[in-house]
Amino acid sequence: MWLEHTPTYTFISVILVVSTEKVITCASSSNVQHLSCDMGVISVQAALYGRADNETCGEGRPQQQLANTECSLEGTVDILKKRCDGKKVCEINIKVVRTSNPCPGIYKYLETKYTCFPATTFLSSLHVGQVIFVYGADYGRRDQTTCSYKRPASQTENVYCSHPTSKVADSCNGKNSCTIEASNSVFGDPCVGTYKYLEVAYTCICK
C-alpha cells in the first residue's frame, strides 16, 4: 500500500469534530456492539465494561445483580481503541472485552463513547509542508466484496477477520510518502485461508 502527499496539488483533509455518540450493549455472551460513522472514522473516547448505575440493562434482573454501581473492568477502553479507532464500522462481541470478571454476581454491560471525525476534502494548489497521519489500520477482511475479483467464495466468506495494527502508523506517520506491503509476512495471518487486504484511514496534516 502506498500513501503519498503531493507537494504541488494536494488533498488536504480538514478534521471536524462532531458530537460524541454513546452505545450500550447488555452483557449476554451472544451480544455484539456496533459502532459506525456515516462520515469519517471512529475515535473511541471512553469505554466501560461493568456497571455504573442500577438501571441500565436492569430490566427483569434481581436487585442484587444491580447493586454494585462502581464496577469497571480496567483496560476496556484500550481494547475498544485498538479494534475500532480509524474504522468507519466496528463490531465487537461482548466476549472480546470480557477478559476477567470485575464484580462477580453483578450483571454488566458495555458502554462506549466515541466521536466521528469526518474529513472534508478540497483541492489546494498551495505549497504547504504536510505529512501523513494515520488514524488506524486493519489487516484482514470485513466484507465479501473488497479485493474479491476472481477469488473463490471460500476465500471471502469470513468477514469477521480483523487484525488492527499500529505498524502502518509506526512506518508512515510524519512522512511525505510511504510504501508498506500488505502481506502475511508483515502483519501475520489473522485468518488462514481467507484472502485479506489492508485498510488504512489517514489524512495529511501540517508539520
TrEMBL record:
Statement: the UniProt record of this protein carries the keyword ATP-binding: no
PROSITE patterns per the UniProt record, alphabetical: SUEL_LECTIN
Pfam families cross-referenced by the UniProt entry: SUEL_Lectin
GO MF annotation terms: carbohydrate binding
Swiss-Prot/TrEMBL keywords: Lectin, Repeat
Species of provenance: Dicentrarchus labrax (European seabass)
Residue ranges of domain SUEL-type lectin in the record: 27-117, 129-205
Name of this protein: SUEL-type lectin domain-containing protein
InterPro entries in the record: Lectin_gal-bd_dom (IPR000922), Lectin_gal-bd_sf (IPR043159)
Coiled coil: none
Repeat is among the record's keywords: yes
